Each structure stands twice: as C-alpha cells, then as structure tokens.
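Hi there. Long-time user, first ticket. I'm pasting a complex I've been working with (about 475 residues overall). I'd like to know whether the download I got is complete or cut off, because the file seemed smaller than I expected. Thanks.
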Amino acid sequence: MTIFPILMAAWQNILIALAVLGGLGALFGAALAVASKVFAVEKDPRLDEIIEVLPGANCGGCGYAGCSTFAAALLDGSAHPGGCPVGGEECGKKCAAILGIEMEKNTRLAAFVACSGGIHALRKYDYVGISDCASAAKLAGGPAECRFGCLGLGSCTQACKFGALSIRDGVAHVDHEKCTGCLKCIDACPRHIIHAAPYYADVNIACSSHERGAALRKICEIGCLGCKICEKTCTHDAIHVVDNLAEIDYAKCVGCGDCAAKCPRHLISDSNLNRAATDI
Amino acid sequence: MSFTGLFSIALGSILVENYILVQFLGICPFLGVSKKTDTALGMSMAVIFVMTLSSIFTWMVNEWLLIPFELTYMRTVAFILVIAALVQLVELFLQKAAPALYSALGIYLPLITTNCAVLGCALQNANASYGFVEAVVSGFTAAVGFSLALLLFSSVRERLRFADYPKAFEGFPIALVSAALLALAFMGFSGLEVF
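Hi, the file is complete. Here it is re-exported in full:
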C-alpha cells in the first residue's frame, strides 16, 4: 500500500498538466472559432465549384495569373466561360452551367504562323550563331531577305509547352491537334508573325509581308503580292488588301474558299484544319 | 532593463548567435525559399511578424501558466500550441484586414508554424528567464537576424546562377557549400560583447 500516495501525487501532476494544456488548447480553439466567424471573408460558393472544373494547370493561357484568378474573373463577368484555352469547350460549358449563363460558341483560339517563306524565300547570309530567333533578328535584320518572314530558328517551338510547334521547310508550323491556344508563342516570336486565329477559322493568310509586289517577287516565291484578286473575288466583303497584304475579317468570312482558289500564290489556306492535314 | 542590456541581446541574436548561421535553426526555409530575393523578403517579413508576436504570447504562457503550475517540462508542447494557434489567428486576421499583405505573404505564413527558429527563440527566451521587454526584443531581433541571413543567402544564390562551377555541384550542393561559407563568415562575430 506504500505505492498508493506516490500514485496519487503522480495523478495530481498529470491532472494539472492535463487541465492547464487542455484549457490552453480549448481557449485557443475557442479564440480561433470566434476569429473565423469575426474575420470571415465572404466568398461566392460558386468560386470553388469553378476552380474544381478548371484544369488547374495555372498556365496563364487565359490571360489571368492562374486558374483561381480566372474563376474570380468569370464570377465578376470580366471573363467569358470559353476563355480557358486548355479546358476547351467542355470545361467552358461546365463553367457556364455553374454561372447559369449560355456559353458563346467558337471562341477557341489557335496560333497561326503567318509566313510560308522558309525554303521559298531568299537568304541574305548563313546564320551560324546561337539557335534563337531574337539574336538572329539582331544580326543585320536576320538571315532572311524578307524583313517580315519567319527566321526558322524555333524560338516559338521552345516557348510552346505542348509541343505543338515545329519547324518545317524553314517555317514554324502549328500542329492544330496539339495547339491549346495558350498563345505563349506569340510573345516568343521577334517578328510578330504568329497570330491568334479562331480555331475553326476557314481562311487564313500565311504571309506577313507589307513589301510591294515587285520587290517581294524578287525575294520570296510564295509571299502575298497585294494583287487584290482575293478582294475582288470575295462576295462577302471579308478580305481586303491593306498595305500590300491581304487581311481576313474572321467575323465576315463564311469560308466559301473562293479567294483561296483564285490566289495566284496559293497562299490562302481554305481551312486552317485542312492546312494542318495537308501539310503532314 | 538598461538600454545596453537590450542592445547586447539584439547584437547577440542578430549577429553573434544568429539563428540560422550560428545556431543552425530554421534551415528548412533557409534552403527552401532562398532561390529568389523576392520570396526571401516575403518570408522574412512573415517571420519577423510571427516571431515577435510569438515571443509575447509564449512569455505570457510561460510566466503565468507554466511556471506557477510547475509545468516547465511541458514547454515544447505548450509553445508549439501557442505558435500554431497564433499563426492561424494572424492568417485569419490578415485575410480580412489586409488582403494585399495576405496574398503577398501567401504560403509563407502557414509555413512558419513548422519553422523551428520560432520555437527555438521561444524556448531560449524561457530558458534565459527574460523579462517581458527583453523577450520581445529578443524575438524581434532574432527574426531580424533570420531575415538578414535569408536575404544574404538569397542574393548569393541569385549570383550563383551565373557562376561557373563544376556540373556535379549543380543545385543544392553548391547552395550548401555557399551556406557553409556564409556560416563561417558569421563565426567571425563570436566573442563580440557589449560592456
């Protein structure tokens, strides 16, 4: 029975420790519970739902810092549900459903390289420096004779996280299947010849040269001469020659393909999708 | 407490007994968030904030609860409880009161819960039986010392990216070597005293 008082003393110690620490914990717990009520930040419950639907890659292709900022922009109406290039139509529909609005159609974008030059264009010199378009462009205006043309060193292919760009016959080429429309390549191109075109665009003009026809003819076998045949052919007022270069108005174009058939340089692809298919 | 006493505490925790480079506490954020000076600065601000507050609250808990009830052997548990609750509370408060600061500190705020320099500081304050003012000064300056080491190291690592060193040293090895050299430099402060 001698062990009993020792046990009692030990119990007392344990109980005091338990009471003090338990009390401390309970106090902090209560304080946190109160604080979470007092400092509660009101959040739209739809925000989490939208974030759940979005791909979550935080690639920034939508033009916002990440998926959660894009979701917030959707809620305050400054972005539209089809704005996520990676999630595409399916993700857009889900977002629209959560927001209770209709999703507008065909807002998907794809990169389009507006140059067909490459091996068809004259070279000024052989560039042997580091394989980067920006540095090549700085050396006497780049190795290509055409000051608007693709340099073909593939800065855009490195910028593309989805492996959608490749250099073919000296020109950057977009694989339509792989392009998510994040448009990172646009910034990577020092010539600014990569455009955002509607994914389902029927007509694109694969040239960026504003050179006059006679001068261009000497340096490129394939570039736009500004002959205006397409403009005259078009019955929908969708294609115009501005500064010696044909420009397409995607809103007006119906995709009849008349201009593509008449173009003497075969420069106009009658379908973005077909172009991708025929090039392979 | 005289001004010289407080100054000697400050000098001690910033330079002589620097938490990272001399006592080797808080190495995890030291290596983890030192790749960029921007993030290092964010972490430093968060640590200064939390460490100062935690020395206030751990002092209270120690003086008013643990010592009267003779529970000083429970310090580690009690202090961790205080620090974790405090960080949570600060996070809730900042989210409401200063959303800009909250998003600037970002992930670093909750990470501080597991920063052993914060706990180390609280325990050393208790062991040295500092008074309230001394404990606060010690906590604040320890965090300043932490920030100093973190910022120095992050600027070193930014320079390292352009340095020419053997390939085998790429990444963490060269970071550890430079951390060791930095620690060696701080050893030079040992023995510094205020009379």
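A couple of notes from our side: Confidence is low (pLDDT under 50) at residues 272-280 of chain A. The longest strand of chain A covers residues 109-113.
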